Amino acid sequence: MKKLTSLVLATGNTHKADEIRVLFRDVNTRLVSLGELGLDVDVVEDGDTYVENALIKARAAASAAGMPAIADDSGIEVDALDGVPGIRSARFAGEDATDLENNELLLKMLEQIPEQERGGRFVCAAVYVPASTQPGEEIVCIGEWPGRIGFAPRGESGFGYDPLFIIPEEGATAAELGPEYKREHSHRSRAFTALADHLKALS
Predict the structure, then answer these.
(1) Residues identified as active-site
(2) Helices 174-185 & 187-200 angle (0-180, nearest 10)
(3) pTM (2 decimals)?
(4) What is the pLDDT along the chain (203 residues), one digit of tens a residue?
(5) Which of 69, 109, 160, 177 could cross-link with 58 by S-S, CB 3.0 to 4.6 Å?
(6) What domains sit in the chain, N to C, each tagged with a CATH number?
């Protein structure tokens, strides 16, 4: 396989991009976004799993950029709701829903659920797709972060469901613990750290 020199990051989420860049700091390759390449890639995330959606995004980015791509798909799964919101986490309250609207809907659905039954987890699938001119295997890594859902948002750091997601051993939400803690423990950290380990040998 041709040595990796650049990777395109298939996300328009700046918070997520910042997290991934830090996790890839030890991979000897340049990580660029679609926006930095002047590309606007619109994909329909119609997969049935996190892996399928991540691969849809990475394959589209690799094709548009003509270079290897990495992407992820993630969500929060709540045990009392049989895994909902799951792959629809970002669109839980509607296609253009804000983080606040998604959080409010989740809290409403859990109104009658006691603390001991509010377990759940963040899940992330991180993938690598080679460019068409650099044939090779696609790589998939999964990361999970167990916790429980609080009764009200807490904390100002983070995004998505972070203000509701409590890490029991810390007694605090992901939004209260901040970005440094997330970079060491989160679902995205676990998935992309594993992916970075795979790619170090190629870079």
Answers:
(1) 73
(2) 20
(3) 0.92
(4) 456 788 999 987 777 788 888 888 888 888 998 888 888 888 989 999 999 999 999 999 999 999 999 999 999 999 999 999 999 999 999 999 999 999 999 999 999 999 999 999 999 999 999 997 777 899 999 999 999 999 999 999 889 999 999 999 999 999 999 888 998 999 999 999 999 999 987 76
(5) 69
(6) 6-200 (3.90.950.10)
